[in-house]
Amino acid sequence: MNSAKKVMNQQKDNSEKKENVTVKAATGKKKLGVSSGRNVKAIVLSAICIVLVLVLCIGVGIQQLGPEVAFTVNGTKVTMDDMMYPIYEKESYYLPYDEMYQAYMGTSVWESSYQGSDSNVPSSVSNKIGIKQEILDNEEEYVVLYKEAVKAGYKLTSAEEKKAESQAKKAMKGLSWVQKFRLSMSKKRLTKRFEKTILADRYKSDRQKELNKKVDETSVIKKISKKDYREYDIQYYAVALSKTDSSGNTKKVSAKKKQEYKTEINKYAKKAAQAKDFTKLIGSKDKTDVKYDKAEFTEKAGWSYLSTANLKKVKAMKNGTVSPVFYDEKAGYYVFVKMIDNNSTSSYQKACDDAVKSAQTEKYTEWLNKLKESYKIKVNASVWNNVEIGSMTTEIVTAEDLQKMNESSSKKSSSKSSSKKSTSKSSGSSKSSK
Question: What is the pTM for the complete model shown?
Fold first, then answer.
């Protein structure tokens, strides 16, 4: 009974207090002026600012207390805070292409097939899966190489220390403090990261030089066919016999249009016989679908603008000669060609260089994989499995943000370039006046 009375009395007291407050508030409203209203707004704004600061401070505290570990190498922890920059670096590279992929490919750049260079990633996987593995492989490699560099007595030069600071500054350029915070990026953290990667890169370069000596370049080059890679360099005028609409659908032109194309390209072919400059047959005021371009193709690869029979005729051409017009319905073009070089070695040389580079890379990969076996590398699946490339940093730094940053950087570069030119001009004029 006493407890019930206390509750009833407390409820009654609370009701009376509310009534008193209501009466006071009602009478107080009459006294509120313009200055009081401003004070209320200031108090509200101050409260919001305090809450935001508290939230950010709590966030910082949580990160410092225990950031999630992505993987460990011989007990050395690499946290998700450490991984945010390499993730941001990859996502900011691919993000600007996403809109184009959505429009022309009907899928996002993240869902398209893998486009990276990690040999451990099968080409059949999606970009987001491949990039994720590529980031992990790269970071594991850098940690291992850094440890090896330190073990071998490598130390940063003063120039490399300055380079690390410069790279850190460049990495954060254009980012707001909120974006830096959300990306776990600071000058101190990034400078430390770049110091490690610079040292690891130097160690890697030295090991690569040693490993390159073990590659038998002669035997590698022997496998490249000089005949297959014989290159033909040409200049040509062509018009396509089909058109592609904005949706990517291809449609052949009408018979009437083909006849118009024949007339147009024949006109330019006649001009070619008399012209001093083959590249300037089309006048600036000409309205035509015939286009000028140049191309290189190899003996083995061929050229898609001509069918096999017509391509054989082009390959037989002497340097400096111009072909008749090929009305190649099978290939889908009307085209005539000027042979510039019918026996270029550029493609062969490139194929040889690529083969040697591939053999050197393979030798390094074998060495690295063997080296990594001597380390205990453990990926924290409960953390790393939650990483989804394409959504980790793309809302923090959007495609629009990246575009603005690029535009700002371009403006500054052009401004510096203009400044240098004007300075050199003024110095030149002062010299001449002397």
Answer: 0.74
